[in-house]
Amino acid sequence: HQSDTRTIYVANRFPQNGLYTPQKFIDNRIISSKYTVWNFVPKNLFEQFRRVANFYFLIIFLVQLMIDTPTSPITSGLPLFFVITVTAIKQGYEDWLRHSSDNEVNGAPVYVVRSGGLVKTRSKNIRVGDIVRIAKDEIFPADLVLLSSDRLDGSCHVTTASLDGETNLKTHLAVPETALLQTVANLDTLVAVIECQQPEADLYRFMGRMIITQQMEEIVRPLGPESLLLRGARLKNTKEIFGVAIYTGMETKMALNYKSKSQKRSAVEKSMNTFLIIYLVILISEAVISTILKYTWQTEEKWDEPWYNQKTEHQRNSSKILRFISDFLAFLVLYNFIIPISLYVTVEMQKFLGSFFIGWDLDLYHEESDQKAQVNTSDLNEELGQVEYMFTDKTGTLTENEMQFRECSINGMKYQEINGRLVPEGPTPDSSEGNLSYLSSLSHLNNLSHLTTSSSFRSSPENETELIKEHDLFFKAVSLCHTVQISNVQTDCIGDGPWQSNLAPSQLEYYASSPDEKALVEAAARIGIVFIGNSEETMEVKTLGKLERYKLLHILEFDSDRRRMSVIVQAPSGEKLLFAKGAESSILPKCIGGEIEKTRIHVDEFALKGLRTLCIAYRKFTSKEYEEVDKRIFEARTALQQREEKLADVFQFIEKDLILLGATAVEDRLQDKVRETIEALRMAGIKVWVLTGDKHETAVSVSLSCGHFHRTMNILELINQKSDSECAEQLRQLARRITEDHVIQHGLVVDGTSLSLALREHEKLFMEVCRNCSAVLCCRMAPLQKAKVIRLIKISPEKPITLAVGDGANDVSMIQEAHVGIGIMGKEGRQAARNSDYAIARFKFLSKLIATLVQYFFYKNVCFITPQFLYQFYCLFSQQTLYDGVYLTLYNICFTSLPILIYSLLEQHVDPHVLQNKPTLYRIKTFLYWTILGFSHAFIFFFGSYLLIGKDTSLLGNGQMFGNWTFGTLVFTVMVITVTVKMALETHFWTWINHLVTWGSIIFYFVFSLFYGGILWPFLGSQNMYFVFIQLLSSGSAWFAIILMVVTCLFLDIVKKVFDRHLYPTSTEKAQLTETNAGIKCLDSMCCFPEGEAACTSVGRMLERVIGRCSPTHISRSWSASDPFYTNDRSILTLSTMDSSTC
Hints:
The chain is α+β, with helices and mostly antiparallel strands. The protein has 39 helices and 39 strands. It folds into 5 domains: about 140 residues, Calcium-transporting ATPase, cytoplasmic transduction domain A, CATH 2.70.150; about 70 residues; about 210 residues, 3-Layer(aba) Sandwich (Rossmann fold); about 200 residues, Calcium-transporting ATPase, cytoplasmic domain N, CATH 3.40.1110.10; about 220 residues, no CATH class. The strands form 8 sheets. Strands 16, 17, 18, 21, 22, 23, 24, 25, 26, 27 and 28 form an 11-stranded mixed β-sheet that branches. It has a 9-stranded mixed β-sheet with strand order 14-35-34-33-15-29-32-31-30, with helices on both faces. A 6-stranded antiparallel β-sheet has the order 3-2-4-13-5-11, with no helix packed on it. It is elongated.
């Protein structure tokens, strides 16, 4: 894109004179995947070898291939290959899912006008300049400029819910010259060129012009956002439209609002890399020590070349330095298993399988919509347990996005709608029977309407007439001042007969550009003033069964600066009226009559209840005033320069001297349990931010009603800031107020414009204020602003973990920016759910936490390799291995991998219904503890075996001694048993799967060893292990040694646990103990015991409580013998119900 503008020839009719060089545009493909078939292998390998451990194992593998090392290359090559393959398969599968959803979008059928006919093609084949036909309820496949619709005025209605979260209908207009071309044949005659700006991400900005050639002359028409139909929006309420594609594929505004998919890496993975580096240091120091000691020994002649091991000529002549290096590398290879490569595989598997658990979790299942949680990126499961900041969208995420009319205030009196009738609230002034009967007659006129005409009211006393007029006027204003459309299909069936008016509201289907408007028009219809529809210039209203036609003269559209909209109509009586409605802050200051103060009080009362409020006012024009108004509007609308500013001035001029009629209050229903969820998250120490595109007042009222803001909170505001200096000053004041006010909690409200100022210059100050507020609300936010805020928090000094929740495509960029993005499958389309890491059906499902254990891996590998190091002291540093090669390879893959995997999937430290505070599993202190534990266990294995068996000669019946391999195997056996039982001690929550893998691993080791050592394997070079294991187990003292060492290792551990639990319990353990003591005593999660129990059970229970093996899940409930009773909340694992008596 060299130039700032692009020139598009409609229907790709290029000029014939040949001076034209066509611009190149991209095709209409959307790509959300990371890999292609060609780059998958190199790109994926590159990503995997970015991980320290993988890269390190690759190096070791290469070293083993190059020099003569004590172990064969297979020992490190096989695990590496296994790890890389498993990860690649998982990532490939996840990417394949993205590809298939892309293909679905790109392959959608569309109709394009080519050479005078409609051609059916695929969405990806649309080119810039193509004329596309879209039918009702279809989604636009590219950004189009509207050419014509099935209406004569060339208008159409669009909902952009999936783009910016607004469910309302927006009206788009075609240029008058093209609006006439309603058939394919006519469009084929169109010769036009569109010049417009290059693609940009702002959804609401578009500038361009269309040059139409008719009868040899050129007509230039301006194009604005109202002629642009965005990709992802949906055509409503219009049979079909034709539009010309101007931005396609990844250049559409929707695609530009996506952030690019970068590889999200979780904090656990980052902390694992730190731990790995610590271990690399340990490893290298061990190798260096061994090499130095080897050469120190060899300075003595008798050790350098003993009589039984003469050197060859070649060895004597080789250089010292080379020998030193190769010795060092050999030791490195010997000890390399201290780095746990299978840690990554297990973590990968844990995430992958954990993601299925999230999908299966019944607590995350939403019945009405039959939706379970989806996991799109399983790399981040463990992040869910450590979130510190949560950002959520409001409309559709916290609320259901359904509006209902609740109350209104007319002429200073409050009314509530109850069963379709307006009922005054509280004591009313001059509440004669008259006004009540009027109101009831208004809603139940259907049965009287043929008797009553408006004149029959006029005979009643003055005040009642006034009242009636006012009510009449109020609801007429409501049913005229709007942009509601009526679905074309049903209007035919409505007659003008008065008896029809009770059917009308239910048969008419309204479509509105905002849900509020729709709710208001429907409410007016229920009360008896029914909006029937608008043709070219008239709006028809049926008042109490009598049809009235109002001529629509002008609509002064809503905009976010004025925050109000108005219509100018000519009543049947011929007088010209302006009806205005808008936020109270924009209507009340313009009013000169009506009950302003009372209404203001009522509006505040409504807002406190969390209702969305609008004020309604009107103004009568004299014919002279109207002429002036008409002239001014016409001038402003046709201005080519600064049209927007001129219109704004005219609107200001017209909307003044209003007379206030009253106010309405509409409720946007909150999703269920939102309040509880936000409370729970706040209790867990998570800071909740609400980011929304909504109006300031609305957003604040929803925040209050959903518990995001409390009534007791001190609410600070940073809104409508115009300049940098003003913004900085305001921020400093807020910071001062926070330090001075002794309120416990502060809430902050920011709007989009002030926010962009604050972020541009005063980030530090702004962050300082935000960090001290427990709740922050940002309103009027653009999609990319949402992402910027999150980015800001992410890179702040504390580097907190962030989570974003949203349901519209306007939330996509923030979902991709946060560490963890959660999409809600809501009314606003599925865009967010597709781009998120997790997708759930409702907001309340956020409060489950997961956490994994990385330390255990390091522990078991320290146990594994330290005996190897110690053994070198006894074999003259000759690099003799202690374990057989097969054991080296399989230790991490088979013998010890499953228990930890299952533990990390199923473990629940406390009942999931007790929200845990943030897990602090990844702290350095615990890491040190595990490392030291590993070393001490390793010393016990090695020296225990050495002391018990090393000097003892008569172990075997025939008087033979134990050999080197038997000794190594003994150490290995003790190690496998200890490490597995240690895992069992850590487990708090037992299921049959835990039992299966824990005891199964030990049994598998024994069976495998008997099988491996019992046969001569022809393809193995050395049969070192032949019969070793069987011989070992045939010796009684070996069995004794095994049992003694396992008990010694774990005894210390159990003692430490008991003391810690009783003297310094952690918050988790306190929760476990309080739960255990409450009501039901339970021993194992499989069974509960009734009160009357044998003496031994109470002893058993005490032991249980000490070790902490008590399932908390049933504590909070009390069972009766008849209750069917699930073994735990994850009823997927154990689907059978158990009767408590069988326990």
